[in-house]
Amino acid sequence: TNPSGHNQFLGDMFEGFLDQGVKQSEGQYFTPMPICRFILMSLPLESLIKQNATPPKAIDYACGAGHFLNELAIQIKPLVEQHKPKASLVDYHKAIVGIEKEYRLSKVAKVSAFMYGQQDIKICYGDALINQHAAFPEIKDNSFDLLVANPPYSVRGFLETLPEAERSAYGLADTIDNLDTNNSIEAFFIERAKQLLKAGGVAAIILPSSILSNGNRTYVKAREILLQYFDIVAIAEFGGGTFGKTGTSTVTLFLRRKKTTPDTAKHYRERVAQWFAIDEQQAVYEDEYLINRYAEHIGILPADYKELLAGNAEGAWCEHAMFVEYTKAFNNNAEIKKLRTQKKFCTFSEAEQNAEIEKRYVDFVQAIERDKLYHFVMASDQSNPVLIVRSPDKKTIKQFLGYDWSTSKGDEGIKLIRDANGSHLTLLYDEVNRDNAAKLNRFIADNFSECLTEIPEDLSPFATTARLVDMLDFSRATFEKQIALISRKTFTVQSKWPMSAIGDLCDLKAGGTPSRSESSYWGGNIKWLKINDFKDFDLIYDTEERISQEGFDNSAAKMLDVDTVVVTIFATIGRVGLIKEPMATNQAIVGLKPKNKDLSPYYLMNAVNFCLDQLLAEAVGMAQVNINQTKLAALRIPLPSVNVQQQIVTECEAIDLRTENARTALASASQSIADGIAEIYAGKHPQKKLEEISEIKRGRFTHRPRNDPKFFGGDYPFIQTGDVVKATASKVPYTQTLNEEGLAVSKLFQPPIVLITIAANIGDTAVLDYPACFTDSVVGLTPHQGINARFLELMMRAQKKHLNDTAPQMAQKNINVEILKPIRVPIPAPEEQERFVAKVEALERAIADAQTIINDAPAKKQAVMNKHL
User: Fold this and answer.
1) 737-747: b (≥16 Cβ within 10 Å) or e
2) Can you tell me the distance from the alpha carbon of 189 to that of 198, in angstroms, rounded to the nearest whole number?
3) Other Cβ atoms closer than 10 A to 498
4) Which of 199, 244, 606, 841 could connect to 260 by a Cys-Cys bridge, CB 3.0–4.6 Å?
5) Which residues on neighbouring strands pair with residue 389, listed in sequence order?
6) Between the CA atoms of 260, 263, 264 and 266, what dihedral angle is there, to the nearest 10 degrees?
7) What span, in angstroms and rounded, lies between the C-alpha atoms of 813 and 796?
8) Dihedral of CA 309/313/316/320: which sign?
9) Tally: H helices and E strands in the chain
10) How confident is the model over 133-150, as pLDDT tens digits?
11) Residue 108 contacts residue 115 (beta carbons within 8 Å)
């Protein structure tokens, strides 16, 4: 036994015990331990432990042999020791519950917990779909902070064993016609998760991939539950080979339960009902921006869509291409076909018949659109994108997962792939550091914390992000809420000029990469272009790397001429640039060279970008989303006259010039601020310790559930680490507030106060100029008399590197107040401090003005294209 760590022997042994009979009869496939580790390392366990005053309640409602329970207990142990050193680990084990319907498995789970030294984990032998378990009263609805499970799939007749009173608790039961044949048990486990989790509770549930697309009524309703009651933080898709003998493709849904007070699903359901009840003459819509956002998403003018809301049968919405399919579906509707043949209907005049059909058509369209608009709003309610993780093809999946299955007699079970030092090799997680930024679990955890950063290029083949609304298809008359693992948004480009295919206008050329193992292929004189060498609209003069003539000759690399437009089609897709020096390129980039002089390369670059959304909507791929050359060649762009092209080029180049000047000004002003700070530090001003010139106060309020309505939702601003990171010179934003109970366990700090982050993003600073509470991962400095708060904040900027270097190397770096106290800061005379602050604020205004020009450039270019095209 090994209470302190993993024991693969135990896992293999239990798999051996359970290999025959149980799986087939119960529809269960046991989760491999590496997948258990990955899933639990992706969950925000650290914040659950830090923010809860008591051990967070966790449940696996289909625990099988107890793999998730054992792994959870193993992973929380070092986190409890770090953040709650005085707490009893036994209490944390007591807060973990497993439910298992198969008697033998429930006993194995209990034995497994005992052999891992986790005997206080509770194992309930019973049906997880039942609401109450007499021997386990702690299993209550809306009470769990964490749910993780691999529930059974496709169990025929499972509802027959569920008492009728228990079935009535499920909205999904209304979609079932035959209890004896229905096998959609996994859908019911989704609704059960919704019942068990408290607001803000997190979940990871392994389900068959079909849960995202099955058109059966039960599965459509299950997806409605997901969209209405959860934020979908991430989806990890694992192909065949992940679960051994079963070839089932699965998805792991990483979820966070939405607010329950107020119930956002109910709130927006009522709001949408109000929109469809408003008379056209009133034209006052609460949360009107949501209507506008949906109309723009489906490509309709908001004003036209509001005519549909008002029931105007002759509104401009009728002419939109999307409603052609609605008309076909309406005319093919059995009820409408029957209506047209009824005697009473046939006695109506033609005008009366048309009026009746028109009324029914509007009702038909409104019913569909009410459903679409509601679920668009619910999907929009999720602010952070969905992180999509997809395993590679069968050839490389073993290296991705880090294990293989052995069926050799006497050597059965999972075989981990290890390096020479015995470390597990996988892209999924680091077995000793859950915050390793080179592993996929870190990015899922970051998305739970709403601080997801750009995914590194070497992980981009396996992970991408998408807005949830773009993963839903709103274009068809039948809306089944399928969730695609690529963006499904469709676009139609309209222009007064003829549209021509890229393939007719340009020669397309894609490249390749010389072998990295051949050193003689690299370091030559040929510029070699890759994705990171340019951003959108870049004029590309140079590249980071060079290849040799030998490398060029022995690879698929291709030379691109000057004035070739380049488009990225792989990994980071959709960047568009224009090369100004000859260079070779790799396979992720396609060069577009105009076939004749009537097509301006610079115009072509902007035209491709103008139509790019139309192309991205057709991106394909499993492990990695990409655009193939055929679809790029088929992309149609407007082709105006040479004179109009030149006019567009002239206006866009003027925008480019202003943007480049703004970038130069921004960089210069930023450097001036940094130089000014350095100059003060290098001067002869007296330097004093931070504790001598300010009162150092660590924030309060921690160990509380995220969004717990008992503490949150009042009048007192609550500053978190991310708010300080996002702060500007003039504003510290906040997204959370505390009520009176929250204030009672926190403290209201008075301005002016300098904020410094001491965890995660260490050393970010801001000046708070309003009363607020802040988290314990933020420290506040209240300056003594004669110390300008803004000046002190500027001086602390120079300490960011020192603070990061000083932070102990732990799973998550952080510093404490004791590290801050001895930091020495130069202190000029008060009037000199004020002069320096005034100088910096003038530079910051220049930076803000320059950033506005940079930010506005894409929209200004789009306006130019719209005006002329």
Assistant:
1) bbeeebbebbe
2) 16
3) 9
4) 199
5) 236, 463
6) 150
7) 19
8) positive
9) 32, 31
10) 988 999 999 999 999 999
11) no
Contacts of 740 by beta carbon, 8 Å cutoff, 6+ apart: 714
pLDDT at 779: 93
Query: Which H or E run contains 378?
Result: helix 350-380
Q: What is the per-residue pLDDT for 849?
A: 92
Residue that is written with structure tokens 């004749």 in the block: 596
The candidate with the shortest Cα–Cα distance to 592, out of 637, 552, 548, 626, is: 637
- Radius of gyration over every alpha carbon of the chain, rounded to an integer in angstroms: 30
716 residue type, one letter: Y
d(CA 585, CA 530): 6
Task: Give the pLDDT score at 21.
Answer: 45
CA-to-CA dists, residue 261 to 200, 266, 384, 707, 713, angstroms:
11, 10, 21, 10, 10
Tell me the CA distances in angstroms from 815 to 190, 278, 809, one per residue in order: 40, 55, 10
Those residues of the chain that have pLDDT short of 50 are 21-28, 621-623, 703
Contact 145, 202 (CB under 8 A): yes
515: nearest Cα among 567, 550, 558? 550
Q: Three-state DSSP class for 36?
A: helix
- Kindly report the pTM of this predicted structure: 0.60
541 Cβ contact list (under 8 Å, min separation 6): 580, 581
Backbone angles phi, psi at 785, to 5 degrees: -60, 135
CB 850 within 8 A of CB 842: no
Ramachandran sector of residue 418 (left: φ over 0; alpha: ψ -120 to 50; beta: rest): beta
What's the pLDDT score for residue 13? 62
Q: How far is CA 828 from CA 82, 595, 836, in A?
A: 41, 66, 10
* Number of other CB atoms surrounding residue 843 within 10 Å: 20
Q: Do the Cβ atoms of 608 and 502 come closer than 8 Å? A: yes
What's the rounded Cα separation, in Å, for the pair 28 and 646?
A: 65
Q: What is the DSSP letter of 700?
A: -
| pLDDT reported for residue 622 | 41
Structure tokens given for 421: 């030092």
- Measured CA to CA in angstroms, residue 555 lies from 34, 240, 516, 548 at distances of 37, 33, 11, 11
Instruction: Tell me the sheet residues that pair with 414.
Output: 405
Does residue 262 have a cis bond before it (omega within 30 degrees)?
yes
Return the C-alpha torsion angle 846, 849, 850, 856, nearest 10.
Answer: 180
CA 54 to chain centre: 29
700 Cβ neighbours under 8 A, 6+ residues apart: 745, 746, 747, 773, 776
Q: What is the pLDDT of residue 243?
A: 65
User: Cβ(185)–Cβ(160) under 8 Å?
Assistant: no
Give the 3-state secondary structure percentages of the chain, helix then strand then coil, rounded to 5: 45, 20, 40
Tell me the C-alpha distance between 757 and 775, whole Å.
10
List the structure tokens of 525: 């004189």
Contacts of residue 736, defined as CB under 8 A and 6 or more positions apart, other chains included, come to 707, 712, 717, 718, 720
- The three-point CA angle 476-482-487 to 5° equals 80
Residue whose C-alpha is closest to residue 32's, from 323, 217, 252: 252
pLDDT at residue number 272: 93
| Residue 226 contacts residue 190 (beta carbons within 8 Å) | yes
Tracing tokens 């499920």 back to the chain, one arrives at 170
Cβ(493)–Cβ(499) below 8 Å = yes
